Recover the amino acids of this structure.
């Protein structure tokens, strides 16, 4: 009798624990995904991919980034820390650091080395530049470091920043065709990773080449296959299907798969292997898997948002998502995992495409902007005072200003007036204006949330809507405008009710919402504003 009561008690406690937290949390980030793609390509999606998430999950139709620059590294960091670059410190993919006086990359770490078959530079990476904790960090601590956290992406920053400071492992893709890591996580790759790498799974995709996934008539949401707004994939004669990836691989390296939909497929294979071999979601101690699909960004940058190549990439990703959901249902179990899908930023229309349709916008390459600043400086002050221009930030050489006995305030004002006169510039803010932000200037709010006083510049530029600092083909991102800030945000699975919201939400609300949902501590930098809709229990 006593034994029966004991077993019943243990059963109740175990199930109560299971109800408090899911067995597995899966965070999916689709690099450079506009919310609009879920509408534009909807008719051609399968019922079991994006549509399944939207019809059975909770969809935030009006989710936005709330800072600039809207780039990959700040995006991933902001999703998982629940705060902005002003707090977490990842102010770009790479940036000029005022304190260090040099360029730095978001995940650079000279104190660690490559683990696996990658070059020395590819693996010298860690999360040490990330100043805040992540939701993945908090899961590790909440489970007394028994819950596993694995991060993965084709990009190092897409794997490392979501996985946080305490991850068991983060893995990213090398131009050798292998997934690699760094000594920050361990001295040797897990055996299953080495086995996966030895299979050379990337070759099956390269050998079959890239042709349309569906009949050409399906791609009527895109421009013609060969149009003037597309770049060329790895030296191809023209941006047209089919692409001979084998030839491109022979002339380059295994990195060619990045700018094809197959980069996503390869990563999904790797994710499933991780779930199997690391036994993620097999017990009631919550694990966390972060997966960042990067190929969408490579294709978007090179070929643009209206290319058939981009549409094909999303049609294939839809099938990849469908297959991955089916795998999770089978291995972890329906109702045992909590999944969210979002993006690290969206992306602009190709500016020449808009210009050709009589919208008065243009492109202004960053080198051109820097040259104009240098020319103005020499003409006005007799010397080049520009130390660096990057990420919309202007840095002055303060030593020269001091040596020339110039007044920094007057220098800033002169450059500000010059910049305002430029055709692409909407607003310019000085460091003093940014730090004194009162919250009433819409543009300044974005700048201030992305500004770290120890790392950012003397001036920050906000360009006009539609104008872009990029080349004439493909596209880019980085601004305060909705085409760069509006991204999908879908929650699905464990204790998530069906529904949708059209209220404007901020990307920084995702991490604290998950913290509340699964009963762990907030990431330490977050403002802790949550998505109440996700916290409402699933209707019976």
């Amino acid at each position: 009798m006593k034994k029966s009561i004991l077993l019943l008690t243990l059963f109740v406690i175990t199930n109560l624990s299971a109800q408090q937290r899911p067995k597995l949390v899966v965070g999916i980030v689709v690099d450079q995904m506009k919310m609009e793609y879920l509408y534009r390509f909807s008719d051609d999606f399968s019922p079991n991919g994006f549509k399944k998430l939207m019809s059975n999950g909770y969809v935030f139709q009006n989710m936005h980034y709330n800072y600039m620059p809207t780039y990959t590294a700040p995006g991933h960091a902001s999703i998982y820390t629940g705060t902005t670059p002003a707090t977490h410190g990842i102010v770009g993919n790479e940036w000029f650091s005022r304190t260090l006086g040099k360029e730095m990359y978001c995940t650079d770490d000279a104190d660690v080395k490559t683990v696996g078959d990658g070059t020395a530079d590819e693996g010298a990476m860690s999360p040490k530049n990330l100043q805040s904790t992540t939701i993945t960090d908090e899961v590790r601590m909440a489970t007394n470091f028994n819950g596993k956290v694995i991060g993965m992406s084709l990009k190092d920053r897409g794997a490392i920043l979501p996985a946080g400071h305490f991850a068991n492992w983060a893995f990213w893709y090398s131009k050798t065709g292998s997934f690699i890591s760094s000594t920050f996580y361990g001295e040797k790759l897990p055996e299953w990773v080495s086995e996966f790498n030895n299979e050379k799974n990337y070759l099956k995709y390269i050998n079959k080449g890239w042709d349309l996934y569906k009949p050409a008539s399906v791609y009527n949401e895109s421009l013609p296959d060969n149009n003037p707004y597309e770049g060329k994939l790895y030296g191809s004669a023209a941006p047209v299907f089919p692409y001979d990836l084998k030839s491109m691989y022979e002339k380059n390296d295994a990195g060619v798969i990045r700018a094809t939909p197959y980069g996503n497929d390869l990563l999904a294979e790797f994710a499933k292997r991780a779930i199997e071999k690391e036994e993620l979601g097999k017990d009631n101690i919550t694990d966390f898997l972060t997966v960042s699909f990067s190929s969408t960004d490579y294709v978007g940058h090179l070929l643009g948002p209206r290319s058939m190549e981009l549409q094909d990439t999303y049609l294939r990703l839809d099938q990849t998502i469908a297959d991955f959901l089916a795998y999770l249902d089978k291995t972890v179990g329906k109702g045992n995992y909590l999944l969210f899908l979002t993006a690290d930023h969206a992306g602009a229309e190709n500016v020449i495409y808009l210009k050709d349709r009589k919208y008065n916008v243009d492109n202004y390459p960053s080198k051109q902007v820097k040259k104009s600043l240098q020319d103005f400086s020499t003409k006005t002050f007799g010397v080049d005072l520009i130390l660096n221009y990057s990420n919309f930030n202007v840095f002055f050489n303060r030593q020269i200003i001091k040596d020339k006995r110039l007044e920094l305030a007057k220098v800033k004002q002169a450059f500000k007036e010059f910049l305002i006169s430029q055709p692409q510039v909407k607003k310019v803010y000085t460091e003093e204006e940014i730090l004194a932000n009162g919250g009433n200037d819409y543009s300044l709010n974005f700048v201030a949330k992305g500004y770290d006083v120890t790392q950012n510049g003397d001036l920050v530029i906000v360009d006009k809507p539609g104008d872009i600092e990029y080349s004439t083909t493909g596209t880019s991102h980085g601004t305060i405008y909705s085409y760069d800030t509006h991204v999908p945000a879908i929650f699905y699975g464990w204790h998530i009710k069906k529904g949708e919201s059209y209220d404007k939400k901020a990307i920084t609300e995702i991490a604290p919402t998950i913290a509340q949902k699964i009963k762990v501590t907030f990431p330490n930098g977050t403002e802790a504003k949550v998505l109440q809709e996700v916290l409402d229990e699933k209707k019976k």
Remarks:
- The radius of gyration is 24 Å.
- The chain has 23 helices and 19 strands.
- Residues 58 and 528 are 20 Å apart (CA to CA).
